[in-house]
TrEMBL record:
It comes from Segatella salivae DSM 15606. Its cofactor is FMN. CDD domains: nitroreductase (cd20609). Pfam families: Nitroreductase. Residues 8-147 form the Nitroreductase domain. Belongs to the nitroreductase family. This is Nitroreductase family protein. Keywords: Flavoprotein, FMN, Oxidoreductase.
Amino acid sequence: MDFLELCKKRFSTRKFSAQKIDEQTLEHIMECVRMAPSAVNRQPWKFIVVGSESAKEKLVQCYDRQWFRSAPLYVICMKDTTNNWVRAFDDKPHGDIDLAIAIEHLCLSAAECGIGTCWVCNFDPQRLNALFGQPGYEAVAIVPMGYAAQDCVGKEKQRKTLDEIIEFV
């Protein structure tokens, strides 16, 4: 499939089947994450793959929704707060931007493999840091991953027209 088709295919999956993601597929997805670009190639991120039942039980304490519990796997996406590039003109740190690029690599490569994902930013960061935190890192998103349940389908994407979002000067 071409890239535009992949972008149209990907949707926020909110109901997963029990089917596990095989190790080779997960490795492919994480290799795509590793190849994501970042400012000055700092790669200011760490990804914690949560698959054990005990770790999942801890994670749902941070965001307890039934649909979220249905995922067979989760990725906690952490920003390295000590190693992200800062723009000199205005002191803007780019760690969140860099991590967002890597997360989208995760979501699109997962979609390419037939795996559903959903960005989750609505979680308790203090609890997550208490349970999974690492010095120098900040949790930015949790991405549940798995094969979509049979009755889970994406809605038709509502997007602005090109004329609304692009200006040629």
